[in-house]
Each structure stands twice: as structure tokens, then as C-alpha cells.
């Protein structure tokens, strides 16, 4: 796993150098965005995988797969699985996190100045990266080549041997690829500061807390968590307590967020019902729920005033 993470981290050099060597502003900004994005989310991704290493007791991919005979790690390490899903989308520059290629603001990002085969190579690298992170998610969280626990027992393990392993791995891999496509067609692009704030202020601190929780659980019951039979009725008390506490914390965070949003909405001054469109010197159309204020009647100058003005005007202006 260390080798895979190290090789994946080198991919950012291509993006940065492509943006810098273009000699254009937009590709340069796209390359800088990609640098900050990949570095930020690689930290959260690596921390998410630490929990899997603790469960399996090894960093070898084969040992991690074999340790998921009875239970896939997407269930006991559900929090790490969610963090990895978010980080793998950010790592591959895919919507809603394709800020390095923001067409609406950067015209195409770091590959704006490239076409033909060079452009094809960029897209090939992007999609190869998608397959790579999907294969890692399958290996680390979905049991790799193994069949689902309920199906693996059918026929004395016949569906978990031979070519079946390759078939199960490919099915899981394409489920993640379908998730990438579905996500691109469903969610809009986020703002760059929101994306970086999510990585540094939410994902990394929460993953550190989760690692500490997993370490305490492993210390409390060494060797049990990786082989817990949740569906068979066996569930360690400490694991159950941790899951309940995490769910309560999530509910409390959602309630606090909703409460603050409601208080923020109340603090906002209500829009006036009727507005003067020329109050600020420029015509302003009414917002939904607003009406235009009736204009005051225009008073015309009297005939005596107009005669007096014409008498005092210069000779040339009278002519």
C-alpha cells in the first residue's frame, strides 16, 4: 500500500508542469489548484487507510483481503470508507470536485492549451486514476476478489474460487465507476474555498479522531474486530457503544447546523415589500415577493414661471 500511495502522489507533477509550461494564466491557476487539492486530500486519504491497517494488522493488500473473510471492512470501518469515497473523488479531479478543470472559470484548466494526442493523454491518465482508486477501494473495503459473505458459503465455497474471484473484483470495480458517472450527472461543482475548507477543517480532524477511537477498540479487544460476526449475532460491546456514540455525535452536529441556519435566517433583515427602483441611482428590478413603489406625481412648472425663465435667458438661447 505504501508503494501504491507513493506512485499515486507523483501524478500531480504532470498536472502542475502542464499548467506552468503552457505560458497562460488559466492553465497556471488550474495547475496550482490541482497541487493544493491533491496534497490536501492525499493526507485525508492516507489517514482513512490507517484504520484499515489497524483492523487487518498488515499493510499488504493480500493480507487485507484475507482478513475480510467474515466481514468486509466497509462495515466496521464505515467512517473510513466514507472519507475514502470523498477523497478519491477529490483526488481524481472529478465532479463535484473538478476545480482544476473548472470550465466555467478556467476555460478547461491545466490542459487548456493542449489538443490532439496530448489532450488524450491527460484524459487517459485521469480515467486510469479513477480505475486505480476504485480498485483500491474494492481491495481495502469490499473484500477484494472475495464474494459477499452470504454468497461465499453457497456450494461449499464454489462461488469464491477460480475465475469467480476475478468476476467479483470486476463487478465491484465497475460499481465504483458507475458511482463516478452518477456523481458527475447529479451534483454541481462546489466553490474552491468550500472544497479546501472541507478537506482541512472537516475531513482531516475527524479522521484523526476516528483513528484514536479505532486504536482504543483494538487495544480493548485485540484480534476481534477484524473477525466480528455482526450478521451472525456476535457484536462486541465496545464496538456497539462506539457506533452509537458516533451516530449521536452526527445527529448532534446536524441539529446544531440546522439550529444555526435557522438563527441566521431570523437575523437577516426581511426584504421590504415595496421598493423604489431608482433609489440608488440605477434601475433595480424587484425581487420575488416585492412590488414597485408608486412614483410621486410629477409637478410641472407654472406658466408664469416658464415666462419668467424665458425673459432672463440670454439672447442667443432665445433665438
UniProtKB/TrEMBL annotation:
GO terms under biological process: aerobic respiration
UniProt-listed PROSITE patterns: COMPLEX1_ND1_2
Biased composition (Basic and acidic residues): 306-319
Region entry Disordered, spans: 272-319
Membrane topology: Multi-pass membrane protein
Family annotation (Pfam families): NADHdh
InterPro entries: NADH_UbQ_OxRdtase_su1/FPO, NADH_UbQ_OxRdtase_su1_CS
EC number: 1.6.99.5
GO CC entries: plasma membrane
Entry keyword Acetylation: no
Major location (coarse): membrane
Keyword Lipoprotein set for record: no
Enzyme class: oxidoreductase
TM spans (from-to): 38-58, 70-89, 163-183, 195-217, 238-256
Annotated compartments: Cell membrane; Membrane
One of the record's GO molecular function terms: NADH dehydrogenase activity
Keywords (A to Z) from UniProt: Membrane, NAD, Oxidoreductase, Transmembrane, Transmembrane helix
Domain of life of the organism encoding this protein: Bacteria
Similarity remark: Belongs to the complex I subunit 1 family.
PANTHER family documented for this protein: NADH DEHYDROGENASE SUBUNIT 1, NADH-UBIQUINONE OXIDOREDUCTASE CHAIN 1
Name of this protein: NADH-quinone oxidoreductase subunit H
Organism: Nostocoides japonicum T1-X7
Amino acid at each position: 500500500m505504501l508503494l501504491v500511495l507513493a506512485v499515486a502522489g507523483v501524478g500531480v507533477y504532470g498536472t502542475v508542469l502542464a499548467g506552468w509550461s503552457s505560458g497562460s494564466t488559466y492553465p497556471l491557476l488550474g495547475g496550482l489548484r490541482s497541487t493544493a487539492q491533491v496534497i490536501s486530500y492525499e493526507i485525508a486519504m492516507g489517514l482513512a487507510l490507517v484504520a484499515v491497517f489497524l483492523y487487518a494488522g498488515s499493510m499488504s493488500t493480500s493480507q487485507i483481503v484475507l482478513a475480510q473473510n467474515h466481514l468486509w471492512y466497509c462495515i466496521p470501518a464505515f467512517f473510513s470508507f466514507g472519507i475514502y469515497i470523498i477523497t478519491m473523488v477529490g483526488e481524481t479531479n472529478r465532479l463535484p470536485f473538478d476545480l482544476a478543470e473548472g470550465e466555467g472559470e478556467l476555460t478547461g484548466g491545466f490542459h487548456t492549451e493542449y489538443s490532439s494526442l496530448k489532450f488524450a493523454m491527460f484524459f487517459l491518465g485521469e480515467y486510469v486514476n479513477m480505475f486505480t482508486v476504485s480498485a483500491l477501494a474494492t481491495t481495502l473495503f469490499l473484500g477484494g476478489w472475495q464474494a459477499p459473505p452470504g454468497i461465499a458459503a453457497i456450494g461449499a465455497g464454489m462461488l469464491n474460487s477460480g475465475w469467480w474471484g476475478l468476476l467479483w473484483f470486476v463487478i465491484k470495480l465497475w460499481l465504483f465507476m458507475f458511482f463516478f458517472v452518477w456523481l458527475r450527472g447529479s451534483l454541481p461543482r462546489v466553490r474552491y474555498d468550500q472544497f479546501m475548507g472541507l478537506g482541512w477543517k472537516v475531513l482531516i480532524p475527524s479522521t484523526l479522531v476516528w483513528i484514536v477511537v479505532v486504536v482504543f477498540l483494538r487495544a480493548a479487544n485485540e484480534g476481534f474486530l477484524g473477525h466480528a460476526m455482526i450478521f451472525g449475532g456476535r457484536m462486541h460491546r465496545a464496538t456497539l457503544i462506539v457506533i452509537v456514540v458516533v451516530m449521536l455525535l452526527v445527529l448532534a452536529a446536524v441539529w446544531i447546523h440546522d439550529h444555526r441556519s435557522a438563527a441566521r435566517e431570523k437575523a437577516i433583515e426581511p426584504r421590504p415589500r415595496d421598493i423604489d427602483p431608482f433609489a440608488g441611482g440605477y434601475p433595480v428590478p424587484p425581487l420575488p415577493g416585492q412590488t414597485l413603489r408608486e412614483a410621486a406625481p410629477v409637478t410641472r412648472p407654472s406658466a408664469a414661471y416658464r415666462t419668467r425663465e424665458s425673459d432672463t435667458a440670454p439672447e442667443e438661447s432665445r433665438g
